[in-house]
Amino acid sequence: MATRLVYFEGEAVPALRLAEAAGLEASLIKRHDFPDQELMLTLAPPLDGALPATLVVYRSLDRPNEKLVELLLVARHARRLGVKRLVLVAPYLAYMRQDAAFHPGEIVSQPLIGGFIDELYDALITVDPHLHRISRLEEVMPRIKALTLSGAPRLADLIRMERSNPILMGPDAESSQWIEMAAAATGFEHGVCQKVRHGDTRVEIALPDLDLCGRQVVLMDDIASSGHTLARAIEAVLAAGADSVDVAMTHALFAGDAMELIRQAGVNEVWSTDCIAHPSNAVAMAPTLGKALYEVLQGG
Ligand SMILES: O=P(O)(O)OC[C@H]1O[C@H](OP(=O)(O)OP(=O)(O)O)[C@H](O)[C@@H]1O
């Protein structure tokens, strides 16, 4: 038993897809939540006896405050039992958005959470981490091997199957990286909006100079959280005369009533990757993650 993948309830589908793609055996870690909200994790057979030399932990870090404790417990336990190499597959990597102190006294969490993972694991594979003011994860995780993948090529494949001649649109300057990737893969016309953020749920969107009249538009972004970015962009695109607007994103966080918000804004289809389990999941990341995991495991 040289390498094994472990996963948690609620993520069995993407984790088992990845295990199959990477040719690994997989085991469930059971979690019990005590009334005071402490957690107890239990390794299922055959891991209750011995652990392999390399352990791959699959955990996407939406709802991060509880999941970061899981990562700590699993990693420290594994080290105690002699696991040599710990690989974390976290398709969604949380706490990457607070990368600067925007107001006096704010604690900048990005390097701190990055450092937490850096101390516990030997390698990380993640998808479209929200790196705005830094360019590489190594800047916050200097010790471990960190592999950054993108959901954009898989979303582009889906859009090509679903729409014949859409305009791809990013809601802000940062989204141009995913729009350009998808446009290069599909040859579709594309543009990027300007966004001004005034607060957690207050954003303004200005459209690029493109004729949207009668066109099908697909908005692409890395994250939908409160849904306000997409909602404002959907409204602007429809007001400019577009026939329909679909949205495609890597990480379907959809906090609170976000889904309802974008429905009210007039969205047509909502597509996401399975980086975060959500009813909108339309694209499996297992082939992409599996290739990266194979490389990491071969790399020693
Ligand atoms: O659904 P929402 O709550 O609107 O959040 C989603 C948006 O937030 C992120 O950008 P952000 O505005 O944080 O960009 P920044 O890093 O450029 O500040 C992300 O790239 C999305 O565009």
Automatic annotation (TrEMBL):
Single GO cellular component term: cytoplasm
Kinase as UniProt keyword: yes
Name of the protein this chain belongs to: Ribose-phosphate pyrophosphokinase
Family statement: Belongs to the ribose-phosphate pyrophosphokinase family.
InterPro entries in the record: Pribosyltran_N, PRTase-like, PRTase_dom, Rib-P_diPkinase
Entry's Gene Ontology BP terms: 5-phosphoribose 1-diphosphate biosynthetic process; purine nucleotide biosynthetic process
Keyword Zinc: no
GO MF entry, a single one: ribose phosphate diphosphokinase activity
Gene3D superfamilies: 3.40.50.2020
Signal sequence interval, chain numbering: none
CDD domains with a match to the protein in the record: PRTases_typeI
Domain (Phosphoribosyltransferase): residue spans on this chain: 156-251
SMART domains named in the record: Pribosyltran_N
PANTHER family: RIBOSE-PHOSPHATE DIPHOSPHOKINASE FAMILY MEMBER, RIBOSE-PHOSPHATE PYROPHOSPHOKINASE 1, CHLOROPLASTIC
Residue ranges occupied by any Ribose-phosphate pyrophosphokinase N-terminal domain in the UniProt entry: 17-113
Source species taxonomy: Bacteria, Pseudomonadati, Pseudomonadota, Gammaproteobacteria, Oceanospirillales
Organism per entry: Onishia taeanensis
Alphabetical keyword list: Kinase, Nucleotide biosynthesis, Transferase
